[in-house]
Write a structure and sequence with these properties.
Structural class: mainly alpha
Number of helices: 8
Shape: globular
Strand order of the largest sheet: 1-2
Number of strands: 2
Helix content: over 70%
Radius of gyration: 22 Å
């Protein structure tokens, strides 16, 4: 009998390794763009410094050096991976019986794909991340709230698409019908949310567009590596032929 604890431990282990490898990707692909953005920010600050003032006037030393930030990147992605792996395992244990596939591996991969679309891709398309040199500190609360709202809407859109796809079975078992209805419900939910949520664009016109999108795609790639490794790693560890015992079932056994 496969227990909830076993599933959770597997999720934590897979999440740790996925976080480490995602951190490696972010270090190789993202850190050079961050350094370039910081250089642009520092150059802009130096240009506004009056010639009769000391170069360091009004400037504050960063709380964490760039070297410390680079090492902290791996710690952050590892902790994030562990937390995400635990949440993923809980979701798998609770939703496994509702996923209409006989294979646990396919169920894990489908759950990872849905999580990536709802948690990462939907918010990215509306509010793509910006490098350190971009953004107004006074709007950080607004940007955080709108991003979290988009994340919740992304998950709701995935749920709406799945629910609509299953409802479409009433009109026939043709896969294209389910795909069209489910995809339509998903897209309609996202489009409605995008139209309602406010637009936030704080990128100055002087900032290099190439550097901006290189940073954004590096951020998206980091999340893609994390979710891909999480999905395939968890799919490889789950036992397809054993039964899941959830905490509630274990208490009543």
């Amino acid at each position: 009998m496969r227990t909830f604890g076993n599933l959770l431990v597997r999720g934590l282990i897979v999440g740790l390794f996925a976080g480490l490898l995602a951190g490696t990707f972010a270090y190789v692909m993202g850190e050079p763009h961050i350094d370039a953005a910081i250089a642009i920010e520092e150059a802009g600050g130096a240009a506004h410094t009056h010639g009769d003032e000391p170069a360091a006037a009004g400037e504050e030393e960063p709380l964490v050096s760039r070297t410390g930030q680079r090492f902290g990147l791996f710690l952050a992605t590892s902790l994030y991976g562990v937390a995400l792996g635990g949440i993923f395992a809980v979701g798998f244990a609770l939703l496994r019986r509702r996923l209409r596939t006989p294979s646990d591996s396919y169920a894990a991969l489908g759950l990872a794909a849905a999580g990536f679309v709802g948690i990462v891709l939907v918010p990215f398309l509306k509010y793509p991340p910006n490098p350190p040199a971009v953004g107004d500190p006074d709007t950080i609360t607004k940007r955080t709230v709108t991003y979290l709202l988009t994340l919740v809407i992304g998950l709701l859109a995935v749920w709406a698409g799945v629910a609509a796809s299953r409802w479409a079975q009433r009109f026939g078992d043709a896969p294209w019908i389910r795909l069209a209805v489910g995809g339509g419900a998903f897209v309609a939910t996202i489009v409605a949310a995008y139209l309602i949520l406010p637009a936030i664009n704080e990128v100055p016109g002087s900032f290099p567009a190439t550097l901006l999108w290189q940073f954004r795609f590096a951020s998206l790639g980091t999340q893609a590596v994390l979710w891909t490794l999480l999905g395939f790693g968890y799919a490889a560890l789950v036992d397809r032929n054993s039964q899941v015992t959830t905490p509630a079932e274990g208490a009543t056994a």
